[in-house]
Amino acid sequence: MRLLQLLFAVAGLTVSAPVFAGDASGLDPAAIDRCIGAGEGGNCADAGMQACREYAETKYTGDDPDFVEKNCLDASHQAWEAKLSETYQALLDKEAEAGIKPQEMLRQTEHAWIGFRDSLCDYRADAATAREASGELARLECQRDEAARHWALLNARLRDMPE
After folding, report:
1. What mean pLDDT is predicted for residues 113-140?
2. How far apart are CA 27 and CA 67, in angstroms?
3. What span is annotated as the signal peptide, if there is one (predicted)?
4. Distance between CA atoms of 100 and 90, rounded to whole angstroms?
5. Global pTM exceeds 0.85
6. For residue 74, which of 129, 1, 140 has the smallest C-alpha distance?
7. I need a surface site. Which of 21, 60, 79, 143 has the fewest CB within 10 A?
8. Which residues, including other chains, have CB under 8 Å from residue 149's CB and lie 6 or more apart?
9. Which of 120, 110, 114 is closest to 141 using CA atoms?
């Protein structure tokens, strides 16, 4: 997450800081890698979530009924943001090595994507709140899902680039 924040800060963008996850979240980012390695690709947004929930339920003793889910969604979102940041930088590097000059276009595209993601997730949070569901959970799930989806797009672009 910090690398992604640094990349976005250099580009003049902002990313909200994580709220719930930490080293004790119970989410194993390797579960995402195993899912991707098994060929699941775009269906891996939820990877590691069940184990995280089970772990967090044994550790959390507070009175927030949504804490476990918030914790795991935030941790999963952070893991996907880290993968996204890594892939984004690799794509920039590979384009530079290939002599491709539209790196500024890639940066602009990422900036536009962040705006799209934020608007979409705000909409989902507002819609959930209107249905008397947790807007915070809807936002966290949306952020995680959109990061995973965008990672898959950038990763496909990276894979398709000539060596």
Report:
1. 94
2. 14
3. 1-21
4. 13
5. no
6. 140
7. 60
8. 42, 45
9. 120
